[in-house]
Amino acid sequence: MQPIRTPVCGTVYPEKVRLRSPILYKSSDRCFHANPWTGQAFLRPVRSRSNLHIGKGVRVTRVLVEPDGPGGGGRAVGVQYVRGRRARAVRARKEVILCAGTIGSPHLLLLSGIGPAAHLRDHGIAVLRDLPGVGLNLQDHVAMGGLAFLVNESVALVESRMQRPRYALEYALRGTGPMTLPGGAEALAFLQSPLAEAEAALAASSGPARKRSRRADVELVFGPGALPGDTGGSIRRSINLDEDFWRRVYGAVAGRDAWNAVPILLRPRSRGALRLRSANPFHWPRLHANYFQDPRDLQVLVHAIKM
């Protein structure tokens, strides 16, 4: 594998690392990193490949399947999509790879006639393959936000302070200052709740050859800011937090420096489901999250908040 030398700072990266590495910028005689957005990191370096076409403004509506015979089933041969209000189709010479995500992939399978037969017929979709499991086993990492811990120094992210032009200039020219702080997470911790510890001990005691599991079931995400610093409302608007609620809970400490800790369930036991709203591919599916259907999830999250 030939290494690639970046045009700035003379840094050498192996090719397989280049796509996932922060972009290097140069200011005077020093270098600093800036995390790229997804398209910049993964698409731009490969978009000139002759065997790759990236379509913008495209919405795939179903997978095209050629039936094998009277017994049902079939082989995926392409996709149908809409672009500019026109329905089009593209066929594959070898294979179709479905990677539309946790929500998009089962949604497309259902629209294509692959899923629970009764549910598909309810929406007037011809059944290509009766697969009851499509859309089931939906799992989500439930998190509890809102914890805030005040500090007495000006070291956290406070929106009113971050809007000062000098901070943007300092970051652009020297790569220093408060804008170098990661907005989402500055530190992570992976822990076992008392419930997981008890279950691991019980499993280990069931046989002499079994080792006690150390798998974490709780993640703590520590951030360099918190809701008291959301003086402009950008965070609470993004998470649909009621303005009156924010003022009642955080109004007395609004504008204060604070950091936050967000406990997250790593191994939820509750299971949800995705179902069609209609046969129209532009109608979002129905999500039945079933959060805390298993009471152990709530028990673990309460333990995580107290950690």
The structural class is alpha+beta
Mean pLDDT, nearest integer? 83
Which series of helices and strands comes N to C? EEHEEHEEEHEHEEHHEHEHHEEEH
How many strand segments? 15
Q: What ranges have pLDDT less than 50 throughout 5 or more consecutive residues?
A: 1-33
Number of helical runs? Answer: 10
Tell me the fraction of residues in β-strands, as a range: 15-25%
Percent of residues in helices comes to: 25-40%
Largest beta sheet, briefly? 4 strands, antiparallel
Shape estimate: globular
Radius of gyration: 25 Å
Largest sheet: spatial strand order: 10-13-12-11
Q: Gap between N and C termini, in Å?
A: 46 Å
Q: Could you give the topology of this structure?
A:
Blueprint: E1 4-5, E2 12-13, H1 15-18, E3 23-27, E4 30-34, H2 38-43, E5 58-66, E6 75-83, E7 86-91, H3 101-111, E8 114-115, H4 117-122, E9 129-130, E10 149-150, H5 159-162, H6 165-174, E11 187-191, H7 194-204, E12 218-223, H8 234-238, H9 243-250, E13 258-265, E14 273-275, E15 286-288, H10 295-306
Parallel strand pairs: 8-9
Antiparallel strand pairs: 1-2, 3-4, 5-6, 6-7, 10-13, 11-12, 12-13, 14-15
Give a verbal description of the structure.
Residues 101-115 form the Glucose-methanol-choline oxidoreductase N-terminal domain. GO terms for molecular function: flavin adenine dinucleotide binding; oxidoreductase activity, acting on CH-OH group of donors. It is a single chain. The chain is α+β, with helices and mostly antiparallel strands and 307 residues long. Helices cover 25% and strands 22% of the residues. It has 10 helices and 15 strands. It has a 4-stranded antiparallel β-sheet with strand order 10-13-12-11. It has a 3-stranded antiparallel β-sheet with strand order 5-6-7. It has a two-stranded antiparallel ribbon with strand order 1-2. The longest helix is centred in the C-terminal third of the chain and has 12 residues, at 295-306. The two termini are 46 Å apart.
